[in-house]
């Protein structure tokens, strides 16, 4: 007799199997449930796409949407530029995090604890909160807008790789491979390229797939820098009240850039 506590500790598929056996349906298994869920997801997605396509074509035929009035050329160029930035940021994130993880694996536990602490602190900071810091650098011509944009995108991308690669404990096979590399005295580059990266490839791919979405999400905050080096565009059009107390001229200049459109 299965107790209720054990039942509610199991997964949803076990609940479905338990309920189906109680009502007399014995042909349901975990494989069947996964198959049904997969088919339901695919069919629902196809139906949703068909409905969206129908309404889109219907509005075009009625004249509610004029597709020729939109700047498709500018949008395509902007999309390609964003794609190039996303690719660069993901490559930089992968390189930096992989090298940091390889260094941590070869050191003591304190290095990993420090990396975990820094990752937790920096990953909790939103990408939008970096704008007040880097806006001063932009206004004083310390950093170009492209570097600021890439750093903000890095802030919203790298942590997906961090929490999949360096923070995950190594498996027994990975430990044995690294021990064999130490016994045979392989160089750092061979150990990194021939053992560490192939053994970490499933985790790296999982982190890169999540980082791809995080990079596109961070472009919302990262691509508001104007091509001109000392100009910043307003992020959101909100009517914020002006502070009544007097500020320094430098802060007033920065405040004017934040509250007004500059193009």
TrEMBL record:
The chain crosses the membrane at residues 36-57, 77-106, 113-134, 146-167. Residues 99-224 form the ABC transmembrane type-1 domain. It is a multi-pass membrane protein. GO terms for cellular component: membrane. The keyword Glycoprotein does not apply. It comes from the Archaea. Keywords: Membrane, Transmembrane, Transmembrane helix. GO terms for biological process: transmembrane transport. The keyword Membrane applies. InterPro entries: MetI-like (IPR000515), MetI-like_sf (IPR035906). This is ABC-type anion transport system duplicated permease component. It comes from Ignisphaera aggregans (strain DSM 17230 / JCM 13409 / AQ1.S1).
């Amino acid at each position: 007799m299965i107790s209720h506590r054990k039942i509610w500790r199991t997964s949803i598929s076990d609940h479905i199997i338990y309920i189906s056996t109680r009502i007399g349906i014995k042909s349901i298994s975990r494989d069947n449930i996964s198959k049904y869920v997969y088919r339901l997801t695919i069919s629902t997605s196809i139906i949703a796409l068909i409905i969206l396509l129908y309404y889109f074509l219907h509005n075009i035929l009625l004249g509610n949407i004029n597709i020729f009035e939109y700047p498709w050329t500018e949008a395509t160029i902007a999309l390609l530029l964003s794609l190039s930035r996303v690719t660069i940021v993901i490559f930089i994130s992968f390189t930096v995090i992989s090298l940091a993880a390889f260094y941590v694996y070869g050191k003591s536990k304190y290095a990993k604890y420090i990396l975990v602490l820094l990752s937790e602190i920096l990953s909790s900071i939103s990408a939008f909160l970096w704008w007040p810091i880097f806006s001063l650098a932009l206004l004083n011509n310390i950093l170009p807008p492209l570097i600021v944009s890439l750093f903000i995108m890095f802030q919203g991308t790298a942590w997906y790789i961090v929490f999949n690669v360096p923070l995950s404990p190594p498996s027994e096979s990975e430990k044995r491979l690294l021990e064999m590399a130490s016994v045979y005295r392989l160089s750092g580059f061979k150990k990194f390229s021939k053992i560490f990266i192939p053994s970490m490839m499933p985790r790296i791919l999982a982190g890169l797939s999540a980082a791809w979405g995080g990079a596109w999400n961070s472009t919302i905050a990262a691509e508001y820098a104007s091509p001109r080096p000392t100009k910043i565009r307003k992020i959101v059009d909100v009517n914020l009240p002006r502070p009544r107390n007097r500020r320094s001229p430098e802060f007033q200049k920065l405040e004017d850039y934040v509250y007004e459109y500059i193009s």
